[in-house]
């Protein structure tokens, strides 16, 4: 992992905690959550306040998420909103915490100026004993307060003020007035400087969960589905179409029926030829390292020379992607590629909509040799696979990601995935029969949304 850390591809954008005051505030919050404190004088934290250095010190990389409990967080500054989230076992946790900080920024800025803010993200599920429990996660609730209880103290004073104002004889209640004065010494003037955190409830429609070997739950589609990364953990859940990542034809048909994916070559605003060319490079580099072939500097010319020496070991995805690449650059006959072709899931991307990022994450698992997509959308899987690769492949991948992604992350995301999804979803495609008496139906790229190529009398209607 050292290569990734040095190039800013792992533990990048973390917040540095190196002042004695911040370390002291962090330890006060850590003591309340875990009953422990760190001896480190300097460390880094993510958006939730999790520190990889402290995790290594404690021998527990999930020290802010106790087993069977909710995810806790520690805020020292509102600048944590721009940091990544490490060890997230639910894909939406970072978005929820970022939304909480952004929508309560002025209040949190005031609170963190004098104390650390600690809290938890509650999924309102007591226990995830089986996959059927996952659909119960519909809303995440965020609760937070300072280590000194400033929010709770402010709430008490606000309640006293409401009672004072609502009672006709409030001015003659000396006891209540004395209590308000004493409480104001603890919480300050909440009428001029209110300390009340709003926007603490967040609806969750689609998410990936690390439980049960990894599960994609997509509820916003016309046909809700749960897709299991581990086929052995696949389970039927009422109201959801159950699939595993090995059910390629079934997944392809479901994506097409629900208009969740589109061919890269016909996607609006996508420069298809360079995208397909780079996917081919990634696959060739992976195969060359696996076969022990010299890739030189890892450039395109060196990869072509290595491909020429592969013979029958040439990856099966190359044929379909090369045909699409030629079509994108030169035109001609449209290559027929269906869901049985190894290149199929490399050649599509998610359509705009609420499930876009999650569908791209699923496609990365279905097309694992697209290393850039895997790194951008599914870091837990990328890091797990990275540890199993030989050094030559690690060098190539780290260099490639640093050169072609880290320099312009936002531009790369827009080039690959298109602009951020708007409020309106695309119209769903007409339903097709997903399976027949001989098994799941295959789906071609044209059925996934590509118009038929032009004939001698112009474009087909």
Topology, pairings included?
Layout lengths: L1 H5 L8 E3 L2 H15 L8 E3 L6 H7 L12 E5 L17 H11 L1 H8 L4 E6 L16 E8 L3 H17 L7 H14 L13 E3 L2 E4 L5 E4 L6 E4 L12 E4 L3 H10 L3 E3 L8 H20 L8 H9 L8 H14 L17 E3 L5 H11 L4 H7 L1 H8 L4 H14 L4 H9 L17 E2 L2 E2 L21
Parallel strand pairs: 9-10
Antiparallel strand pairs: 1-2, 3-4, 4-5, 5-6, 7-8, 8-9, 11-12, 13-14
Helix pairs in contact: 6-7, 9-10, 9-11, 12-13, 13-14
Pfam family, one: DUF6638
Compact overview of the structure:
With 461 residues, this protein is α+β, with helices and mostly antiparallel strands. The protein contains 16 helices and 14 strands.
Keywords:
461 residues, alpha+beta, four-stranded antiparallel sheet, four-stranded mixed sheet, 16 helices, DUF6638
Q: Could you describe the 3D structure shown?
A:
Helices cover 39% and strands 12% of the residues. By secondary structure, it is α+β, with helices and mostly antiparallel strands. The chain folds into two domains: 2-149 and 195-203, no CATH class; 213-440, no CATH class. The strands form five sheets. The chain has a four-stranded antiparallel sheet with strand order 3-4-5-6, with helices on both faces. A four-stranded mixed sheet has the order 7-8-9-10, covered by helices on one side. Strand 13 and strand 14 form a beta hairpin. Helix 6 packs antiparallel against helix 7. The chain starts with a helix and ends in a 21-residue tail after the last strand.
